[in-house]
Amino acid sequence: MKQNIISDQAFLAQPSQPVTPADKQHVTDLIDTIKANSDRAVGLAANMIGVQKQIIVFQLGIMSVPMLNPKIISKTGKYVTTEGCLSLPGERETTRYSTITVRYQDQNFKQHTQEFTDFTAQIIQHEVDHCNGIII
Prior knowledge:
136 residues, alpha+beta, Peptide Deformylase, five-stranded antiparallel sheet, globular
């Protein structure tokens, strides 16, 4: 079910907890919410819909890709960019990496390790920051 976007910075600054199978509904809610905001969002983290769980979802073409308990395990190609966020007005400067490797679980809790580059890597970094209570 589509959820409202949270803008409370004190809430967003709290690190999220690991996801368990009991949290599967939150994954569905996050996917529904990004689809409902597809005209203005390419990624969301669960805390942005009021759930302090380590779940992110990002758009890859027309697909919404969820990642549970994502951890960036390597990063290269440091650069500075400007980003916006649905939870905050305006844009802010931040440091990102052009290539990252992420260890995560899919919706069935199967473990994956995958490399991402460029804009997809940037989206994932932004959303993983949300899981860690880091706000741009």
